[in-house]
Every structure is written in C-alpha cells, then in structure tokens.
Amino acid sequence: MAEFTQPAGVLSVTDLTPNVRQLVVLPKERHVLFHPGQWVSLKLPVGPKPPLNRAYSMAAPVTASGELTLVFDRVVGGLGSGYLFQVKAGDEIQLSGPYGNFTLPAPLDRELLCIARFTGMVPIRCILKELYAQRQTGSVLLIAVAPGEDDLLFHQELLTLAVTHPGFRYLPLVAAAGEQQAVDLTLSMLRPLVDNAPHKMIPMLCGTKGFVRPLRGYFVEAGYDRKEIKTETYD
Ligand SMILES: Cc1cc2nc3c(=O)[nH]c(=O)nc-3n(C[C@H](O)[C@H](O)[C@H](O)COP(=O)(O)OP(=O)(O)OC[C@H]3O[C@@H](n4cnc5c(N)ncnc54)[C@H](O)[C@@H]3O)c2cc1C
Question: Cβ(151) to ligand 1 under 6 A?
Fold first, then answer.
C-alpha cells in the first residue's frame, strides 16, 4: 500500500544557532502519533527527480494540538537542508510517517547512556523531554558533542535539567576538528565510565555513521551485544 502523505503548514521558523533551524509544522489531514525518537519523511520539491525524500526526527513529544517540531542543520551544498532553510511561516510541505525504531527500550531498568553528535541530539532531546515529563527518576547520562560551543543544541535546557534532576548527568563536549576528534573525545570520557560500571547501561547513539559506528564498535568490544545498542545514523 502506498504510504500516506499529507500537507503540513509551517507555523514557525526559529534559528536555534547560526547553522541550526527549527520548524514547527502542523499536519493538515491527520495527527502524526509518534514515539519519541521517531522521524517523518519530508517530500521536498527539489532535485533532478522531485520529490526529494529527507528524514527529520521530532525534537519534541506529541502534543494535543498535533504540531511537529523539526530541527536541522545547514549542510553545505545540501539540497534538502538548503531548501528547508528557505521555507517561511505559512508555507506548506508534504510529509509522511512516523517511522523508525530509535525509541526507548522497555523496561528502562538500567542507566540510560545517550550519546549524540550535533543534530544527533534531536531525537534524544525528544526522548529526554518525554522521560522527564513522566517524572523519570532513574539515572541518565548524556554525552553531547558539537563542532563548536554555539552548536551545542538545547544546551541551556540540558544544563537546567542537570541542576534540577539529580539522576541526570550532562557532559557537553566540543570537537572542532571533525568526526574523528568527536569519536576520540567521546571514547576518552566513555572508557572510565563504561569499564568501571557495575552493570551494563542502555546505550543510544545518534549522529553520522563516522561517529556512531566506531562507538558501537567500542561497546561491542566492551562486551555489549549489538542488539543492546540502539543507533540512528543520519547519512
Ligand atoms: C532517520 C533519520 C533521521 C534524521 N533526522 C535528522 C534531524 O532531525 N535533523 C537533521 O539535521 N538531519 C536529520 N537527518 C539527516 C537528513 O535527512 C538529511 O540527510 C540532511 O538534512 C542532509 O540532507 P541534504 O539533502 O541537505 O544533504 P545531502 O546532499 O544529502 O548531503 C548529506 C551529506 O552531508 C553530511 N551531513 C552534515 N550534516 C548532516 C546531517 N544533519 N544529516 C545528514 N548528513 C549530514 C553528511 O556527510 C552527508 O553525506 C536524518 C536522517 C535520517 C536517516
């Protein structure tokens, strides 16, 4: 059966950082009921054979009014993100979904270890918002790596969460020299935490393949089963 595609109106456009933008869109025909960590497919009227399909994760949980919050970075020469950076409030975009299984495992019986690079924070932010809206009291460790200090997404919100929730630890890292440095820095933080942990954690990793795959490899070497490691890759 063909996937159900519908128009969505753009309610607002907000710059979160110089290179990251947020769109809030409202699907016009049906509510998109999703689990935090899932994404929608945007059908963009660009490229040699439109529509160009591009996936964007929801940055905030389901609301009663049905709007979706999408957050994306400007990829140099990127057709999809380039188009989205021109969209204005009042425009319409076509979308389908939700899709994906980068969602919280149940039960959440161990420490959750979220690791994100740059816009890889988007689905993880959604997951954390939902968890803390449900008064989550277990332990969560978030390692967020960005190419610059300005690129640490949702930084103030995450600092506030760390101050107000003793079970939530937030480790922001800046790796300006690219993916490999991001992997190396993350591993230098992870090794002592994972190697000395009395129990296995629940790892959820999100970002580009060059970031996620070496980290998944590290968890496998540390004795984790591949199935225990949730990953989402953006490229
Ligand atoms: C399941 C899923 C969920 C996603 N959710 C998000 C999201 O919430 N926010 C978001 O910004 N992007 C997300 N993406 C990536 C998004 O779908 C596009 O690939 C991205 O916006 C680049 O598209 P483009 O046409 O502009 O660039 P393309 O011409 O397709 O070039 C992409 C190239 O740019 C590089 N790149 C730099 N930043 C990104 C990035 N963010 N994602 C992918 N590639 C990047 C990669 O090396 C990649 O090869 C997601 C992808 C998947 C598969």
Answer: no
